[in-house]
Amino acid sequence: MPVELVDDAGHAIGTCPVSQAHQAPGQLHRAFSVLLFDDAGRVLLQQRAAVKTRFPSRWANTCCGHPAPGEPVAAAAAVRLAEEMGLATPFTEVGVYRYRAKDPSTGRVEVEWDHVLVGRLAVGAPRPNPDEVADYVWIEPGALREAMASEPDAYTPWLAGVLELAERALTETWQR
């Protein structure tokens, strides 16, 4: 599968295979992270399957992935949410989280221009795809921050930044 390479401003500059984009030193490319919240304000996390090529078995946001070159981010995110978690719900892009992280267990590198999408799951229950997801949990954001601080290697390196961006956007929305 090809990914869309981007420059430092997030503009498309080419494509390459996803495997190549994640080889050291890594290439900046477009990605997305979805975070779903329930009516109690808890966030839905997934534990990545052990077969994942980057950060396997770690806890992450509700789902994530890469849009195909030229594919709208929200459309790609909706497809991945259905594929990984068996869910469909509206969501909104709230910003971009740019990060670089090397996976110590696989040597692969993430250099991502990560579009963060947030939604509320009012009905339905996750039906995770076992090829993608080992487990899932609903957790209060404060408890999640404490868990990430005490056991950082149990979580993906992008989760804290994605959560912070999502919560900031939700707080601004709720204060209007």
Automatic annotation (TrEMBL):
E.C. designation(s): 5.3.3.2
Entry's localization field: Cytoplasm
Keywords: Cytoplasm, Isomerase, Isoprene biosynthesis, Magnesium, Manganese, Metal-binding
Active site annotation, chain numbering: C64, E112
Annotated ranges, domain Nudix hydrolase: 27-161
Cofactor: Mn(2+); Mg(2+)
Residues reported to bind Mg(2+): E84
Pathway field: Isoprenoid biosynthesis; dimethylallyl diphosphate biosynthesis; dimethylallyl diphosphate from isopentenyl diphosphate: step 1/1
Record: residues binding Mn(2+): H22, H29, H66, E110, E112
Catalytic activities: isopentenyl diphosphate = dimethylallyl diphosphate
GO cellular component terms listed in the entry, alphabetical order: cytoplasm
Function: Catalyzes the 1,3-allylic rearrangement of the homoallylic substrate isopentenyl (IPP) to its highly electrophilic allylic isomer, dimethylallyl diphosphate (DMAPP).
PANTHER family hit by this protein: ISOPENTENYL-DIPHOSPHATE DELTA-ISOMERASE
Family note: Belongs to the IPP isomerase type 1 family.
Protein name per its UniProtKB record: Isopentenyl-diphosphate Delta-isomerase
Native source species: Nocardia colli
